């Protein structure tokens, strides 16, 4: 077979490089390829499909006669761009043992599945091709640099206009293929074994494409009735579309040809716009012939109906409602096994039959190879059209192969999962640097906790702070894995722990902190149906809060001269900076954060704004500082709290004592005594512990903070509410006190239970979703029911402020309809969510948890299905109850006794390895025992005993 002469013209900008077929003269033609980011249509509703279909139809109708177009659909198993980025991030950022282990397992697993050809990736490319005579005149001399540069500019300008038009019509990214991308597509088009090779296309690049034909097509052989020809170690079949379906086509009906798991498939649709006037002229001639036949045989009803249809068609062409095209629709599939190829071919034929059309094949190998040439990238100016079809723009748009594998955020995502169509996908909690608040919804047993154990294991390296609030201990093992970086806090009224609500968490004292403490103490006094009583208590408590804060500051300043000078320098800088701050960020806290971050920046290379802030901070003289300290302004007091230790903070007993001992005559003594008595219930003197009285004993400054609320579930509503309020304030202070550039995550596990446990949890969640984004903190909510959130009043803010959603199995149709008030879930998407399988009902070894990922973005929403095939390590970490949990706990105790000081992560991995071997061997022993006699059963019993002894001794480790 004679392959066309082709080469790549490399331009100064690699993105503008293009193909040339033939010689560089008026008889050749140029082609330029672009990759389309086709949105996933599996979960798209009719409205979105219709919109995209109309855009695609409009683009086809706008095409001029000076070019030809090729829509090229291909499949391969190449996810290297995603997996290599994932591997690089793992090696560069995932420093801890566990994250590196999980991410490495994921990488190895997907690379193994790719090697086994269990994954494939769909692409849609568009090639525009133009004859070179549009750009080359009679005086063109290829050897002259000036002529070549002028030629390249004109060609790239024309192709850029084509790309811009396509992108504007589709409102989707259209990415040019650079010289490497063009080389890669061409190489794979003619060397099918390249799909199985790890080729470095950049290193192997050759501009002259004649040098990459490795296949040996000259040795082809025909296989009548089974395959079209044999080459490059593969059997090949070539089909062409026989005709367009006669019935009305729904948008993207042609995707039925793609709804299969055939690994090796290419479809090329070569499109030639036709001159409408000439088509009308031809149709009118045909109309006159039909009319003449009808006049001779008036009884021919079919001919009469055909004439009416032809009349309507000519009318639509004349009005510009139809645009004519000539196309060739070529399908290529190949396989190393002839029987498998025949099976694949039958699948394609059946798909065509379901669309009321058929596929033509060719017995002669040379004829098949001639049609194969039509699938080459951008090769569309051949003269023969033996399989050409005439069609209009709308049916053509409906039949185009228009589907890409859903990859989520692709290489930009750092959380990796499998997909439901032999693909892989990624997502992230950030879009650039912008946090994407996330909501996860799913029924019990759908796999929410296991999914998030995997997610947090993969994304942990990204966060400087992770805070988890839950009831049930779903992340207890994951917290234990984090070791010294983690703080596990079980809120227990009977435990010896203190949450000091006066603690500012390393932040300046702010009006917000005053308001919080006052509201907290008012709530501590108990509920009242009389609003005036609540207001009176607030008014009474407020001056004592200010007084206690002032007393603690005075005591600190008298013995911390160095810290006081630092506070004075910062307070002076804050006062100077506030007038220049933006109107939406001009508080003392905002100014203090700006200064703090500027001072923390490297001194050798700060940006201009930070350099000025550093100069401002260092500009104050000792005299100015002393004068300011003597003045002792309120600002100095407030800023000083950022430099005070936990032991310097006021505490609950001091406030109670101040209430009891006040001598202010304008206050009613009985009211003071009543409030003091109510508050004294929570002081140490009451004998009920020190939950709110004293120095904060829990370390909320750790990188991983896990707060368990299960033990206060049976406490009174007032206490549960107080615990929730103070925890949230302390956590929020920690998050705000961290540099804004560092990423944080605040996770609410099983929100429905949290709302029931902590009466004020709704306000906590609302505050988190509304305020934390500007501190680069992602709020994540995991719950079973959107209805429960809505009833508590938190549903609207969570649903509207979330930018990313994970929907697991949910069979409640009413619940899904409620969700559509906030998230545009199509009927197809809702049906998919209802039909997700439950992991427990899947066969062993093939269990997975499905979820629908929906993320907001401009234009088309990011929407596709992921699958979590949880590894044994993830399952072990997520196991918090049941037989597996008990077995692992026992094994870890034995291992710990033999290997003192072994990190928990290592203990868990070894225990899971033993349990896996244990299960496998005992399963074998069970089968032997069932088949054997009494003597064999006795030997099996001895084997079980010996095996358990080996486990206890740690021999198997």
From TrEMBL:
Listed SUPFAM superfamilies: P-loop containing nucleoside triphosphate hydrolases (SSF52540)
Signal peptide (residue range): none
InterPro entries: P-loop_NTPase (IPR027417), T4SS_component (IPR051162)
PANTHER family to which the protein is assigned, alphabetical: SLR6007 PROTEIN, UNCHARACTERIZED PROTEIN YJGR-RELATED
Name recorded for this polypeptide: TraG P-loop domain-containing protein
Species per Swiss-Prot/TrEMBL record: Victivallis lenta
